[in-house]
Design brief:
Helix content: under 10%
Oligomer: single chain
Shape: rod-shaped
Number of helices: 0
Radius of gyration: 71 Å
Number of strands: 42
Structural class: mainly beta
Length: 499
Amino acid sequence: LGDNTTGVINQKSITVSASTDSKTYDGTKSSTATPTASWLATGDTLSASQEYADKNAGNNKTLTVTSYSIDDGNHGNNYSVTLEDNTNGVINQKSITVSASTDSKTYDGTKVSTAAPTASWLATGDTLSGSQEYADKNAGSNKTLTVTSYSIDDGNHGNNYSVTVGDNTTGIINQKSVTVSASTDSKAYDGTKASTAAPTVNGLITGDVLTSAVQEYADKNAGNNKTLTVTSYSIDDGNHGNNYSVTLGDNTTGVINQKSITVSASTDSKTYDGTKSSIAAPTASWLAAGDTLSASQEYADKNAGSNKTLTVASYRINDGNQGNNYSVTLEDSTNGAIAPKGLTVSANGQNKLCDGSTEATVTYSDNRISGDNLNISGTAQFIDPNAGANKIITISGIRISGNDASNYSLLNTSATATATIYSAIYQTEPYCAAVIAASHSDVFDVNPRNRQMVPVYRDTSQGQADGYLSQAFLAVIPPGVNMGGYISISGQTLGETAE
């Protein structure tokens, strides 16, 4: 048998085609499906791989054969292979969640969060850019953070992903610490702790304002380096001030100046009483509510007159601070008046011996103030010179003089009084008859010029002496008194009853 070496076996023309595949985006072009051959001889096998034309999600994606090997015992040379794409590939979007991250900050008046959102999954090489914010600006815990924007850099404008956005409810905005401080202030004492200055605050966020802030002095009293304290305040931040942790600060530079006032003597009028006293009370030009003035005043002198000066003698201001809340100027009043005191003069008549005249002696009395220097004069006359009891004396031309005379207004210039004119034995005036009582050894001078009876000498002789009485008492006998006997003087006998 003879061989023929001119035989021909032509390669079998076949097509190796990529298979349809579907997957979820994984950031690669890989395909888990395998290409297929249009025909293979029995026993021959195909080993092959394929991939997507690109990694991006989409439909009708092209799948291409990337490699193949035909196991035909001839290194695949038994086949003439044509490669064929498949345009029915699908890469589905990857479902992921972009979630806000937990964050913590101090209140700054904004919803800004410096934390970045995160993705539940990203293909290798893909990146997420995103921002988030708090649901509101206010301080608090368990605050909601929301994703406000995101971008996935996957070479496909993020279209390889189906994104669900997730909130975070563990955010914290801490209160901002600020100090509300009392401001320095200066005022004149007004009896209150009120301050017209307003407290200030440091560190408020723009747009937030301090309102209704009030401060007061620690006490109402005048002084330097007074403490001012904040008594109330409100921060308008849209959250009732709860975005701030507030420390209150005192101010120790406050000043309450003394209030300048005038304590003035009041107009007063009285009748002369020998003193400078005034029953009117001084007044203050101003006193704070609740403060009171206790004060006294007096005339500059005791004397009667108009336009008298009244001066403040003493004062005390009851203000809880021993009066030190006031700077006091004392003011006189020149409207005082002291009217002269009405002076009533009365007279007491003095008894006298009959001397043939109407001349009378009186002593004056009046209602003067004790200790005042007054001299009273006038002309006093009996109505007749005759002896008698309770005889009327008329006083005319009463006048006053002396250091205190100008303080009195004389209410009467005349007066009456009574007194007795006694009869007396007196040789030159025999009409003044009297009775001599015997059996007395003292002799008295009855000269009316002496106005009194005083012993002259004692006579113990038994006989009569010329011009003298022996063992007799020479007496002044009131008219009408019966002495019951007679006595002889120088041969003269006098009757028992005075005439």
